[in-house]
């Protein structure tokens, strides 16, 4: 195999790079790479810190906070959970992860990470894979409960787009969503969008009247709003994409709709280059406590929580991709996963096909 086709894995024991945390301090990390992509994973919380193409400008689509797992909790805990020590967005993104195995031979390279969640009494095992010649990363997660009772689980893949990939006025975010709802007021939200109002993706209701498209990130605007959408129930696979048309770059996720029926958009636009856009696919529509998800029971006829049975395991799998697309590639119309390929079609009919032999 040629050097270009080789896949490299640097494991944490002394070889891993020191990557900056959102607060600036370095943290240990592992790097998983092939001839197409390079992914840096932080060992404090298992965050996906950077994703870069191996050739060309090393622009990562992920914000400084990266892609982290909100588990077992998404958003603000209840007063009792907080008093017991449960942090916002759960423990998984805060506790150290341990490299329990790595595969450094063959066409598919991988690293398996494990973390203990003592407050939730759960064990999380997460395997990240990348195959030679592919622009795709696969993530398999297994959550095991130590409790002898069934429990509702809160699980969100909290991916956040940030600069320099996210530039206001130059990025389009899309997904196969149907019905959506603006989140109730949250500390810091500006109320640009009409709270607790339902709409059809992508045209969201404005408090002042009228609607606004959520496909784009506006330039020169100061606002912070959240809205959650139901991924089309008729689909086997959901997706979300972020297209930088001026750079010819496309980043996105593909996931099983039955595992992640909801996608929440966190739209934090301070009016300058610090804009961030959360694309958070999850088991529940909003970032609220376990109690609130169960009390809501359903939204748009779809459950707002998922059960983790007593002393059992819950398994999920998704993939993400990052690739260059032709200069004349327009807005994404659909993303399909079939026959070992990710097929991305734009609204003019052009097709970009990526090898994804590992599938979901």
Give a quick precis of the structure.
The protein is mainly beta and about 350 residues long.
Low-confidence stretches: 1-22
Q: What is the rounded distance between the termini? A: 26 Å
Shape: globular
Beta strand %: over 45%
CATH domain topology: Beta-galactosidase, Chain A, domain 5
CATH class division: Mainly Beta
Count of all domains: 1
Q: Please tell me the CATH architecture by its name.
A: Distorted Sandwich
Number of helices: 3
In terms of structural class, how would the helical and strand content be classed?
mainly beta
- The helical percent reads under 10%
The count of DSSP E runs of length 2 or more, i.e. the number of strands, is 29
Outline the structure in words:
This protein has 360 residues and is mostly beta strands. The chain has one domain (3-355): Beta-galactosidase, Chain A, domain 5, CATH 2.70.98.10. The protein is 4% helix and 48% strand. It contains 3 helices and 29 strands. The strands form 7 sheets. It has an 8-stranded antiparallel β-sheet with strand order 7-8-9-10-26-20-19-13, with no helix packed on it. A 7-stranded antiparallel β-sheet has the order 6-12-22-21-18-14-15, with no helix packed on it. Strands 1, 2, 3, 4 and 5 form a 5-stranded antiparallel β-sheet that branches. Mean pLDDT is 92; it is low at 1-22.
């Amino acid at each position: 195999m040629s050097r270009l086709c080789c896949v490299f894995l640097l494991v944490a024991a002394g070889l891993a790079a020191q990557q900056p945390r959102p607060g600036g301090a370095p943290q240990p990390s592992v790097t998983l790479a092939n001839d197409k992509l390079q992914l840096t994973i932080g060992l404090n919380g298992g965050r996906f810190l950077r994703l870069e193409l191996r050739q060309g400008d090393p622009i990562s689509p992920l914000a400084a906070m990266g892609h982290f797992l909100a588990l077992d909790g998404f958003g603000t805990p209840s007063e009792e959970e907080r008093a017991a020590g449960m942090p916002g967005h759960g423990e998984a993104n805060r506790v150290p992860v341990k490299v329990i195995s790595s595969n450094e031979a063959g066409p598919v390279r991988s690293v398996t990470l494990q973390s203990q969640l003592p407050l939730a009494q759960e064990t999380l095992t997460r395997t990240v894979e990348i195959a030679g010649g592919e622009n795709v990363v696969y993530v398999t997660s297994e959550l095991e409960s130590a409790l002898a009772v069934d429990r509702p689980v809160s699980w969100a893949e909290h991916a956040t787009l940030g600069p320099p990939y996210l530039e206001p006025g130059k990025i389009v975010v899309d997904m196969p969503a149907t019905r959506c709802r603006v989140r109730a007021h949250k500390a810091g939200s500006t109320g640009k969008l009409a709270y607790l109002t339902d709409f059809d993706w992508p045209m969201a209701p404005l408090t002042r009247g009228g609607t606004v498209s959520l496909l784009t990130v506006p330039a020169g605007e100061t606002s912070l709003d959240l809205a959650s959408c139901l991924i089309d129930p008729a689909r086997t696979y959901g997706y979300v994409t972020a297209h930088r048309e001026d750079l010819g770059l496309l980043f996105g996720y593909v996931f099983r709709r039955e595992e992640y029926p909801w996608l929440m958009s966190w739209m934090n636009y301070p009016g300058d280059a610090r804009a961030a856009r959360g694309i958070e696919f999850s088991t529940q529509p909003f970032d609220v406590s376990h109690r609130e998800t169960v009390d809501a029971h359903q939204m748009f006829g779809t459950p707002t929580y998922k059960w983790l049975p007593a002393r059992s395991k819950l398994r999920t799998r998704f993939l993400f991709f990052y690739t260059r697309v032709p200069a004349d590639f327009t807005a994404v119309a659909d993303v399909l996963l079939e026959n070992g390929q990710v097929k991305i079609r734009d609204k003019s009919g052009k097709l970009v096909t990526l090898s994804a032999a590992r599938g979901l």
